[in-house]
Amino acid sequence: MPHALEEEVGITEYLSPEVQGFSGNFKERWQDFHVYEVDQGGVELHLSELITPGAVAAELKKNAEERREARSALGASFTFEPDAAAELDAALGQGNAQELQSFLQKQTVAEASSDAGEGAAEAPAFVDFSSAEIDGKEARKKAHAAILKHFGSFLNTETVELPEGARMLRIWMREAERKAKAPTPGSQAQTSGGKGKGKGKAKSKAKGKGGKGKGKDKQQDGQEKVESAFGTLRREGWPKDRPDYLYFRLYKENCNTGEAVSSIARCVGRSVKQFSFAGTKDKRAVTVQAICAHRLPADQLRRTVLHRLWDKRLRISDLEYRGERLRLGQLRGNRFKVVLRNIPPQADTDASAACVPEDGPEHCTLGQAFSAVKGGFLNYFGLQRFGTREVKTHQVGAAIIAGKWEEAVNLILGVYEGKAKRAAQESGGDRPSKLRRTDAGCVDAGQTTDALTIFLETGDAQKALDVMPRSQHLERCLLGARARGLPFAEALRQLPHQAVSLYAHAAQSFIWNSVLSRRIREFGRHPVVGDLVFASPNAEAFDGDTCEISDVMVKDSSNAPDEDADLSEEDVRKLPAVRALQNEEEAAAVTLADVVLPLPGSEVVFPSNLTGVYEELSQRLLGLSISDFSNCSIVQCATSESNCTIKSRDRNVHAMSMQCPHVHLLSIWFQVVRLV
User: Fold this and answer.
1) In sequence order, what are the beta bridge partners of 38?
2) Do residues 369 and 651 lie in contact, with contact meaning Cβ atoms separated by under 8 Å?
3) Higher-confidence position of 13 and 374
4) Which one, of 228, 150, 148, 149, lies nearest residue 158 by Cα?
5) Closest by alpha carbon to 134, among 180, 173, 99?
6) How far from each other are the two terminal CA atoms of the chain, in whole angstroms?
7) Residue 280 pairs with which residues in a beta bridge?
8) Which of 357, 352, 356, 377 minimizes the C-alpha distance to 367?
9) Maximum CA extent, the chain
10) What is residue 226's three-state secondary structure?
11) Closest CA to 328 of 71, 585, 563, 669
12) How many other CB atoms are found less than 10 A from the CB of residue 612?
């Protein structure tokens, strides 16, 4: 089913209704629509580099050669470099430092002798240092750091606790550690669902690197960890001096933001809940935006482009660590490049001049239309915010805000009264319905339909889950929750908080669009007494920049924390103050571009001339009271103000006659392909 019609989501008015339009094909090809995110600092995001598989493979090869070179320096005559010797003596004590040097010498000698035949000595896998010279947590941390600084390419460290409670430092050869900590026959897997100290079956307990014996042992990828006789092979600890969030720029072609993030999360073995973005971008487009990942090492992300499941439609660049998480709406806007094709010749004979329209829109020049755009246009929330499926996102949002949890779950799954009747008619009561899903972009539409038909007709969530394609993450998440017996409200809480927020925001946006249309019809296109404007002339409106809810993905088996679920007061965006126009003089001093309308939500200030309109439209269109927007228990419906009109910046229009109608006209696509 196509996008919602404009009238269905409150878009009914024009800023310049006297200007007639022109015909043409919009987004005929996905290469015809480019979106570049503009961050809060005003930087337009583009790829500054391409992290290609070839470049990453060459980098890994170089690193491996450097490790082999460092490893080859070991031998019977091996000694520490002077600077390393001094630091190791200070951190380990002279006795332990000498023992480490002897360990490395024996390691190489043993490897050489093992080639001589049977009975040769085996290479020692690790060496233990007593706590006599390394006593206390800070001393152990210093020892860990010194060893990894100089020999981290082939050595690893951990703190081991003996049965009597004493602790010692264990130094491993990395390769030997991986072999020693491989699962032993008969060992039992333990899921990484809680805290632990990495206890093994041996009498010692591995505390992990850096001497830390507490904290979460949860593996970020959600996979099982299996203990051996030497304990569990643990992840590298997150450096304390490294910011918690990895930012990178994501270039994508012809896929949803959620689909892209889900693909990357799968390749790096993380939950999508650890990723965030300022807003979703169009599917049928070329887009560049910022993505944020919690505690994801940059080198791990770089290596991921070599993964066999890496999506070839994606590119990444500009990896950097930052201290703050990227949240929804934290951007200034977007830069668009758009190609309109098949414009009638009469319309583009002079793209810079205006003409007098004749009997139809096809006779209006581009010049007149784009000249009118200079004055701006009504700042409606666009169609993509409301989804492409038969059930629109604002309908789901209204059910969530009203606390109708079962209805909300069913709507997300595409189950509603009219559909049930149609399915019963088509199925004849004794065979699966031929009902098809309406999102045309779903390659698993048949299986998805079969799964939802099972749930629709039988209510058996487990059977539906068994049939549901793994690509349908939201549906699988909800069906899995219901199959486990979770109440409908808890099932909704299994979704990423950002996804639920987008549903609620779609309902807010629907009311905002409808109020703006009523405001234009009843009060015209000029400011009037009672309108709201920002109290400060430098204040900026909030730009949520959200699109389809359906493209926000979630792994149904993930136990990762959802960092958007609990926002502190400092996380809530400080909204600029507004003031009402008190008289005709104040109204005459501003323009419609200065007038703002609030989203319905908590702590909202409504314009006095539209307060009743908000309540009326909410009741009639969504069955909600305005107070419902501030009382939702699952998601916070925060308010914000948006300008009634908006002007595009640095607008350029080029008209050209093309002999070949399907040639690519926007250059970045070629640039990326050439550099791959």
Assistant:
1) 44, 333
2) no
3) 13
4) 148
5) 99
6) 35
7) none
8) 352
9) 101
10) strand
11) 563
12) 10
Identify each DSSP E strand in 140-298 by its residue range.
Answer: 155-161, 167-173, 189-190, 205-208, 225-226, 245-253, 275-277, 286-294
DSSP per-residue string spanning 113-129: HHTT-TTPPPPP-EEEE
CB of 254 within 8 A of CB of 284? yes
Q: Is 674 exposed, middle or buried (0-12, 13-18, 19+ CB in 10 A)?
A: exposed
pLDDT tops 70 at residue 261: yes
Residue 357 exposure: Cα atoms within 13 Å on the Cβ side: 14
Provide DSSP, 328-353.
TT-S-EEEEEE-EE---TTTSS-TTS
* Segment holding 189, helix H or strand E: strand 189-190
Rounded to whole angstroms, the Cα distance separating 665 from 667 reads 6
Q: What global pTM score does this model have? A: 0.69
Residue type, 519: R
**Which among 175, 151, 133 is positioned nearest to 81, based on CA atoms?**
151
Single-letter amino acid, residue 245:
Y
- Which pLDDT score, from 0 to 100, does residue 52 have? 86
Instruction: Say whether 174 sits in a helix, a strand or coil.
Output: helix
Burial class (CB in 10 A: 0-12, 13-18, 19+), 599: buried
Six-digit token pair at 500? Answer: 């639920």
Q: What whole-number distance in Å separates Cα of residue 595 and Cα of residue 531?
A: 6
Q: Distances in Å between the alpha carbon of 8 and those of 382, 439, 513, 629?
A: 12, 18, 10, 21
Question: What pairing do the DSSP bridges indicate for beta strands 33-38 and 333-338?
Answer: antiparallel
Compute the distance between CA of residue 338 and CA of residue 399 in angstroms, rounded to an integer.
36
- Determine contact, residues 262/312, Cβ cutoff 8 Å: no
Give the E-state strand segments of 405-496 in sequence order.
none
Q: CB–CB of 498/542 below 8 Å?
A: no
DSSP 620: I
Specify whether the CB–CB gap between 438 and 389 falls below 8 A.
Answer: yes
pLDDT tens, 107-139? Answer: 764 454 445 555 555 668 888 887 777 878 888
Nearest alpha-carbon partner for 385 in 504, 226, 304, 562: 504
Residue 138 CA to residue 158 CA, distance in Å, equals 14
| pLDDT tier at 244, thresholds 50, 70, 90 | very high
Q: HSE-up of 23 (CA within 13 Å, CB side)?
A: 8
- Integer Cα distance of 376 and 443 in angstroms: 39
Give tens-digit pLDDT for 61-92.
Answer: 888 887 777 777 676 778 888 888 888 888 88
Highest mean pLDDT of the ranges 36-45, 125-134, 199-208: 36-45
What are the residue ranges spanned by the domains of the chain?
73-226, 405-491
Distance CA 115, CA 111 (A): 7
Short-list 472, 492, 635, CA closest to 564: 635
Torsion angle (degrees, nearest 10) of CA 397, 398, 400, 404: -150
Q: How many whole angstroms separate alpha carbon 455 and alpha carbon 153?
A: 53
Contact between 636 and 502 under an 8 Å Cβ cutoff? The reply is no
**DSSP assignment of 130-163, as one string?**
-TTSS-SHHHHHHHHHHHHHHHTTTEEEEEEE-T
Residue 204 has pLDDT above 50, yes or no: no
CB atoms within 10 A of CB 648: 14
